[in-house]
């Protein structure tokens, strides 16, 4: 019995050893399969050593008016994109372009294709003919020069391009031009960066068909792009600016600037005015995508690193409703004048309305009549300059006070025709007799200003004798004018602002012209800043178009959190006594509120108690009609504010190239109507409650 038990032990051990043997055999077999059969695949997986981080654009920030109305928005649109790898060859791109051309239509493809694009395509599609463009003997000569193969290939390619004839290119069909246009878009930009092949006008059918065939179109994708939408169409359009199209990309002259800030070459950026000025705010944070590639540059997988964030929003100081009304008034008044057959050269007018206490621009309008249609020229308020006439006489009187040649109150000067040797008679529109500064402003006396300027220049007027003045008087007057913003940049938050133009001669007669606004030229925005400085008691405020920068809201419907609020900026306090400024304010009040004032007939019935100054400057036509260049015309202007005792709105109206006697009053009519519009809107909004989401009063 004992022997049987001992015999059974080895059998159990043998069975155990057998099972262990089978397990080890299976493990060895599995390792062999992994090593031999799948080893190459796993080796390639291990060699995935490069992670390429790519940035993709996001929608730009929105632009709102001061009451939270959207002025500029983004419209989603279907798009077809292509992302090429680092190893993709031109032949592969051409093959994909041919397939893609079967599914999408490229309108005006021939206009998007350059001669170089056609030559590159011809070389790819006619390899044998292309090779014959450079002889073997020429290739051998290049090799004999000791050039590298890369240098030889480059030179041969250049020669081939130069030798492709028009007859060669004529072989390319119209259908092939569409392929070339697609190929051009696919090859633009960097590898691993999505390039837009088509975004405008992608039909539902094109989008669906391409989506169905993505498996046979490596690198192609269907996605959603955006386009800028200007809600009020042409209103304020020139100041809002514009954004480059996807085929424009980053402007070449600013390429290095943008590339250093993580932009791609084909990114759309603001290229003018507000869109450009606040590009870094509106552009947003680009989405980050990680392309995992192997050593050959082929994309293995794509992972989202950061979803991106839409650009920040701008809230402007502009009142969109007031802006529209002002633009409509300008157009109506110009057309009314034209319909009467008056002022054939008059084709534009400008209006700036602002809060004189803060510098916030409430409306900035400009209209230009071209070929019977009005185009927006609001930007002309800072990019064009004109002689402004008597509207600047407030600055002349204040300069007289400050230099000591006038002594408020009541410095009396005789208004009479001035006969200066070698100069046409210089006089006011009527002879006023002995008057003080208040009457000089109220009735717009030229002679009062002439004699003030003569005194500043240390001159003495003698009838029919030459007028000798100290040329430094030009510098003196311009110095004090600049304190109001006349002849210097206003500081508005827009690029390309003009500082105006100064007359070059220092002859005595021109000093007199300077004193009545008929020598130097100023912009409408400078005129608005000037009258605002008088209205608020002597503080030159920086004009501001942007009120706030806000975070994009989650739902895109309400305004987001305030990131930055732009506070009023005082550029300077004019170097004059308060009593001087009050004296000019009283003169401006009399212009509009007392009989005999040059604007009384237009503003006498206004309940909002305005103050201001009219202006008429003799000028010469400098517009688009070449045959009429240098024809004598008149610039009609008006500045003002209301109410006179507590100003909440100031304005400047400029109507260049009018015909005297035929278009008189257009400046005053525009001024009265825009002030009426402002106060009517204010009355309508008085009962409105503050909006909880925006913190502003909704219209």
From TrEMBL:
GO molecular function: penicillin binding; peptidoglycan L,D-transpeptidase activity
Residues in Penicillin-binding protein dimerisation domain copies: 56-302
Gene3D superfamilies: DD-peptidase/beta-lactamase superfamily, Penicillin-binding protein 2a (Domain 2), Penicillin-binding protein, N-terminal non-catalytic domain, head sub-domain
Gene Ontology cellular component annotations, sorted alphabetically: plasma membrane
Matching InterPro entries: Beta-lactam/transpept, Beta-lactam/transpept-like, PBP_dimer, PBP_dimer_sf, PCN-bd_Tpept
GO process annotations (BP): cell wall organization; peptidoglycan biosynthetic process; regulation of cell shape
Cellular compartments annotated: Cell membrane; Membrane
Keyword Membrane: yes
Membrane topology, from the record: Single-pass membrane protein
Keywords in alphabetical order: Cell membrane, Cell shape, Cell wall biogenesis/degradation, Membrane, Peptidoglycan synthesis, Transmembrane, Transmembrane helix
Keyword Membrane set for record: yes
Main location: membrane
Domain Penicillin-binding protein transpeptidase: 350-675
Similarity comment: family membership: Belongs to the transpeptidase family.
PANTHER family: PEPTIDOGLYCAN D,D-TRANSPEPTIDASE, PEPTIDOGLYCAN D,D-TRANSPEPTIDASE MRDA
Name this protein carries in UniProt: Penicillin-binding protein
Source species of the chain: Geobacillus subterraneus
